[in-house]
Amino acid sequence: MSLGPLVSLIERGVEIRAVVIPAPRVHGRPVSPISSAIPRMSHAFLPLAVPGKSETIDQVAARHGIPVLQAGSLHHPRTIDTLRALEADVIAVSCFPKRLPPSLLEIAPLGALNLHPSLLPAYRGPDPLFWTFRDGERKSGVTVHLMTAELDAGDIVSRRAIDLPEGIGGDALEEQCAEIGGELLADAVWVLWEGTARRRSQDEREATYQPWPSTSDLVIDPGWSARRAFNFVRGVIPLGYTPVIETGTGRLAVSGALGFDEHAVLDKKIAIDGRELAVQCDPGVLYLTVSESGERDG
């Protein structure tokens, strides 16, 4: 789980039997299938973080007396037995980087809930926020759904749309997803417990799946509008991605988006001035900064 949803569950009075986090991998050392974790002192690495919070997920759990377990293998019988012994009614998942096997999903009698940062069934897959920005969407959202063997395809319990303001960063969108998603996840746990959940199946005709982005997915398309390209750059850089622009002789790594003009027209495709450049889009002109590393091979 991410920090925001964990805090929401605690504040809503949900009894949490344990928090499970991925086991760190140290080169040359075997990884235990599951073990107790010592709270880390470093900043949380999971993507859905709460602004202004300095504690990590395991530190918050420890402060509330919640056991923290590190899972090295979700398929190992010892892991399954350890988690089954907790006798949890519901499994709640948020931004966990490993896929839960069916043998684990079935140990909770009320089911397993997943918090997904898109309006399912659109943008199934591991990084929906990247694709939201790349596709030029002006709306995103969060969905809480029941987990099945098929990734992100289970019945929807609740979801909420989020309008995307011009130039919003992926980090800011993650914060909104964490806050709203935490509320929805806590609500979903309680309605499952009370037997009042209104679940609805996903319409497979509207389903889309996107994998992890490839290098080619980071290329800014001059066929996009300048507005779309601006929002893509502003959105994905805080997510840890480096967009690139093709110059005809190579590629430049983009470090930021200064702005755009929907009506401007250049007399050439790209105008470069030091670390700043203007790119003719369709329509409009996009204004970017590039990294000091300069041009790189495609």
UniProtKB/TrEMBL annotation:
One of its GO terms (molecular function) is methionyl-tRNA formyltransferase activity. The keyword Phosphoprotein does not apply. InterPro entries: Formyl_transf_N (IPR002376), Formyl_transf_N_sf (IPR036477), GART_AS (IPR001555). GO terms for cellular component: cytosol. Residues 65-188 form the Formyl transferase N-terminal domain. It comes from the Bacteria. Keywords: Transferase. PROSITE patterns: GART. SUPFAM superfamilies: Formyltransferase. PANTHER family: METHIONYL-TRNA FORMYLTRANSFERASE (PTHR11138), METHIONYL-TRNA FORMYLTRANSFERASE, MITOCHONDRIAL (PTHR11138:SF5). This is Formyl transferase domain protein (Modular protein). It comes from Nitrolancea hollandica Lb.
